[in-house]
Specification:
Oligomer: single chain
Distance between the termini: 27 Å
Radius of gyration: 18 Å
Low-confidence stretches: none
Strand order of the largest sheet: 1-2
Order of helices and strands: HHHEEHHEEHHHH
Mean pLDDT: 83
Number of strands: 4
Largest sheet: 2 strands, antiparallel
Helix content: 40-55%
Length: 167
């Protein structure tokens, strides 16, 4: 779960976390899940880049005002952009990294992806682990809850597990 959290909160930190040889930095990344100190008003503990709103769930440089402007121009995307289980990108997820360019301004086209698609590499194994744990549980209600959580990871429908999981 740390991997998916770092993917959605701080891609730059994700790479630092995986390449640092400094045990203190590794521990700080493990605690905070990013380059910003959660206890000290999100001040950076490495680098000079301030915490960006939306972390990695929206394209770099996107502000609430630019989202509002974009949604006004593209009302058909409003529901997806404001869905709490949507990831917004300035390029398609399947774009070849060799074609990727640095983002200099907010893209004229935004792409929306359900959370379970954008982070499928991590949520699919999590769901499989939950299902395996459910099979091991002697408690049928708990096993049912674990299976609902696995379903939620694969569909982004978390309400069933939250409200009907233990009934």
């Amino acid at each position: 779960m740390d991997q998916v959290y770092l993917q959605q909160s701080d891609l730059g930190g994700y790479w630092m976390y995986h390449t640092t040889q400094n045990p203190d930095l590794y521990r700080l990344f493990s605690i905070n899940g990013s380059r910003w100190d959660l206890v000290d008003k999100n001040t950076e503990f490495i680098g000079e880049e301030p915490l960006v709103p939306g972390h990695e769930l929206y394209p770099f440089g996107t502000t609430p005002a630019t989202i509002e402007k974009y949604v006004t121009a593209h009302p058909e995307q409003k529901d997806a952009i404001y869905n709490p289980w949507t990831v917004v990108r300035s390029a398609p997820l399947d774009l070849n990294p060799a074609l990727s360019q640095p983002v200099m301004s907010v893209a004229e086209k935004l792409y929306t992806y359900p959370y379970h698609e954008a982070y499928a590499e991590w949520v699919k194994p999590m769901a499989a682990d939950l299902r395996a744990a459910a099979k091991l549980s002697p408690d049928a209600a708990f096993a049912h809850y674990l299976n609902l959580r696995a379903d939620a990871l694969l569909t982004d429908d978390y309400y069933a597990a939250m409200w009907r999981g233990w009934t």
